[in-house]
Amino acid sequence: MLRPTIARSASAETEISRSRFLATAHRIASLDQLAPLVRDARRAHSDARHVCSAGVAGPLGEASRSNDDGEPSGTAGAPILSAIAGRGLTDVAVLVVRWFGGVQLGTGGLVRAYGGIAARALDAAGRLERVAGTELVGEVPVADAPRIEHALRAAGRTPELDYGAGRARLLLVVDDPGLAEAQALLAQLGVDASPGAARVVERAA
Q1: Which helix (H) or strand (E) holds 165?
Q2: 92-133 tens-digit pLDDT
Q3: Predicted confidence (pLDDT) at residue 201 exceeds the cutoff of 80
Q4: Considering only CA atoms, which of 97, 115, 125 is closest in space to residue 26?
Q5: What does each C-alpha distance from 146 to 85, 165, 170 come to in angstroms?
Q6: Residue 149: its pLDDT value, please?
Q7: Which of 1, 118, 170, 205 would disulfide-bridge 83, Cβ 3.0–4.6 Å?
Q8: pTM confidence score
Q9: Segment 142-146 long-range contacts (CB within 8 Å, at least 24 positions apart)
């Protein structure tokens, strides 16, 4: 089963014993995007002591990475990663910027601080469920395209139409459980559509 991801970028901020923590959650397509996000955060917050991070990627969350960025080993990156994994998410990165306030928080305090603020950013980012889907592709006369598009949208579908000379290419992405129903609807509308490439369909949780 495909893992869900976040719906949007989001942030959360807190202050603990004069240290300020700013967490940001981001959608990513691969772990290669984690390092550029960290570099951007360092440039944006050059006065911060640490920019700790973690990311999970892949349809099943099979790839992960974390970095403590100078904090004691296991006290920053790992709890951020745990916040992501604990929500069953993938294709997401969380960065936590820390401005040191002069008070040592201890191992337990750091774990709670980094994990807690990461969790808040993830919760603010919302959630999108993901299911396997399929493209349905067909061609329709240009004159019929507006009627067909209106009927599909009225049925809760979101077609894409690419207009050419006298014909329009119709693309409809549907989740696999609804594939037969979508094919039947297209047939009723006079559209001869064939299954195309596999896709991932995202919908609000």
Answers
A1: none
A2: 999 999 999 989 999 999 999 999 999 999 999 999 999 999
A3: yes
A4: 125
A5: 44, 15, 11
A6: 95
A7: 118
A8: 0.83
A9: 142/166, 142/167, 142/168, 144/190, 145/170
Which residue type occupies 98? Answer: R
pLDDT for position 166: 85
CA distance 170 to 165: 14
Q: Tell me: the pLDDT tens digits for 75-89?
A: 999 999 999 999 999
Q: How far apart are CA 191 and CA 184, in angstroms?
A: 10
CA nearest to 21, candidates 111, 84, 81: 111
> Alpha-carbon distance 21 to 15, whole Å?
6
Q: Are 174 and 133 in contact (CB under 8 A)?
A: yes
- Nearest CA to 175 among 136, 119, 124? 136
Picking from 196, 174, 182, the residue whose alpha carbon sits closest to that of residue 148 is 182
Q: What is the DSSP secondary-structure string of 9-59?
A: -EEEEEEETTEEEEEEEEE-SSGGGHHHHHHHHHHHTTT-SEEEEEEEEST
